[in-house]
Amino acid sequence: MNKLVLLALILFINGNVFAQSEVSAKKPNIIYIYADDMGYGETGPYGQKLIKTPNLDKMAREGMKFTQHYTSTPVCAPARCMLMTGKHGGHSYIRGNYEMGGFSDDKEGGQMPLPEGIFTIPAMLKSVGYTTGMSGKWGLGMHNSTGSPNKQGFDYAYGLLDQKQAHNFYPTHLWENGKWDTLSNHYFDSHKRLDSARATDEDFASFIGKDYAATKMTEKALKFIENNKKKPFFLYLPYTIPHVGLQVPSEELTQYIGKFPGEKPYYGQNGYNPSKYPLSTYAAMITYLDKQIGLVMEKVKALGLDDNTIIMFSSDNGATFNGGVQAKYFNSVAGLRGLKMDLFEGGIREPFIARWPGKIPANTSSDLISAQFDMMATFAAISGAKTNNTDGISLLPTLLGKPNMQRQREYLYFEYPEKGGQVAIRMGDWKGVRINVRKDINAPWMIFNLKTDMGETTDLAAQHPELIAKFNAIMKKEHQISHINEWEFLESKMPKKGAGADAN
């Protein structure tokens, strides 16, 4: 065996053994909080100046902030699938938003469900004694499908099963362990437009209900923590904030009204519900999400679980471009190129903060190149569970402040079949991107040096044919043909099946 390879193997094995030995014999609780469509720069720890996030600021001061962390793909359902199954976009069962049914209550059909027998994070953690719960947006199958969260490893599941229902923060119902939970909200069309010449305050107010979905999700999450305080638990909290529509409780909105000069109403012309104060509402939504995170942290501390609970925060993809959101105004992606649905940095580089008192060094940051499909391997290392052929690596050595013990990867691979078909590879400081591959199977690589050009403005492909050759070889190695024809854009395709895709 090559000596360098042997040395790397020894360091990898020793690093994992060391990291696991650092973890308490008492299995730690794991809480993973997932924002929806939050840009890299929309919180205080990542440079946001206009939106207040005091609890995430506190989490970062008391924990570790990652600066080169990626989602697995730039839209909702597949990002959640890859997080839950530890697979990248070339291997994942779900790779796009495959919509079923419609927006109204009587047409609620969800998205393509996870199949029976797939290996998930909650199932893995259950195997080593964890009680598992989720409260939030699922998007991987309805209650009567193989993808139901209760059939995919969760002992308790509350929230939205169909992500189309998440376009409205005042839905008529949520789901609790497969049963309809009625809320005190009337039904309305969450994509209705208003006439700008005739819209009244009453018209805008008609898009506000009584029971705010995110509030209900927090209430159920806090109850789950209380009920399981004496045994190890895993809590997945995929909130729907700040995904549009632009809606927030009125009492939370007032703190921002008047803060943004020139703010004008949004009448629904770019989809989703109208808002009289779109900038103020968007800021208030993010601050309200931060408030929910604070409640979770306070609950853990009040129960005396602080030192044995790791809390993590990230988002499923970059900031959106529709529904009245003004990403440029808030510098939502911190100067990066692209937004949601893009494999440029703005669509996939995400905040990632982890806090674990006494274990994760406080007020630290890491530039480790990592991805959300690393969570399965990381949680396995934390809990003592065994993974099942994951594409990820454990981040535990880095989290424990031992980066010299951290296994390094050669590259990260991304592919996304929608918005023309895209591929991206991150290898060290280099990033390769291909777009519109569905239209042109020979679409060229764009190559960027992220160390000197994080905004991906200067294409260096002509100067680096050797990187193009490497990226082509990686793409060929990592891509597996999808079971859905419309998700296949890198290989010869059979006649298309019908698959509805949108920007959920």
TrEMBL record:
It comes from the Bacteria. The keyword Cell membrane does not apply. Residues 28-383 form the Sulfatase N-terminal domain. One of its GO terms (molecular function) is metal ion binding. It comes from Pedobacter frigoris. This is Arylsulfatase. Keywords: Calcium, Hydrolase, Metal-binding, Signal. Residues 1-19 form the signal peptide. InterPro entries: Alkaline_phosphatase_core_sf (IPR017850), Sulfatase (IPR050738), Sulfatase_CS (IPR024607), Sulfatase_N (IPR000917). Pfam families: Sulfatase. Belongs to the sulfatase family.
